[in-house]
């Protein structure tokens, strides 16, 4: 089933990419969200062509990483605590969930120790949801500039998790705002940053996210089925 599901999602991604009015040309990367799924399920996905996987907890990612290693690109999509930064820089190719200078500095420090340049995205809390992490829009430019000054971090773009709404069309304008924000950020002057990625869209809303300009989508349920907690 995993193979068929990935093929179906890839088809939807292609269709949505063709529909987008935006000038986003970067190809869409499908991050298979593997949290709460087993290593053997992940292997199945990799055999079916998955090149990017997303995990949200360090402990779980670390156990899986010991078995899977660098055969795929690892994305951290969950909130990171400073005391886990050391493990995170060992595992992840892209940390998508940076939202404060404190965590950015912790990642920078650990990356320096292993002489790695760590790619990161900054998570934006566009509509100020209390329950969500992410930086508010008005605080974003200052955070981006602070991050840009950290030598071992390379800022690659923005990440956004849309609120859960009943009518999916309500999230479209939010994805569109994120796209505009992303374009603005691309025009900022940085030293080290190389802004390429806008990560938004999950199982229920990735098609809309792509139509509005996402070039990374994070999809779990549509690939692996519902998670057992
Ligand atoms: C779990 C998770 C996803 C995937 O959610 P699905 O609805 O299963 O596709 C995407 N992004 C983040 C940040 C997540 O935590």
Automatic annotation (TrEMBL):
Protein task: Pyridoxal 5'-phosphate (PLP)-binding protein, which is involved in PLP homeostasis.
Domain of life, source organism: Bacteria
N6-(pyridoxal phosphate)lysine carried by residues: 35
Keyword Amino-acid biosynthesis assigned: no
Family: Belongs to the pyridoxal phosphate-binding protein YggS/PROSC family.
UniProt keyword terms in alphabetical order: Pyridoxal phosphate
Residue ranges occupied by any Alanine racemase N-terminal domain in the UniProt entry: 24-227
InterPro entries: Ala_racemase_N (IPR001608), PLP-binding_barrel (IPR029066), PyrdxlP_homeostasis (IPR011078)
Protein name: Pyridoxal phosphate homeostasis protein
Keyword flag Chloroplast: no
NCBIfam families per the UniProt record, alphabetical: YggS family pyridoxal phosphate-dependent enzyme
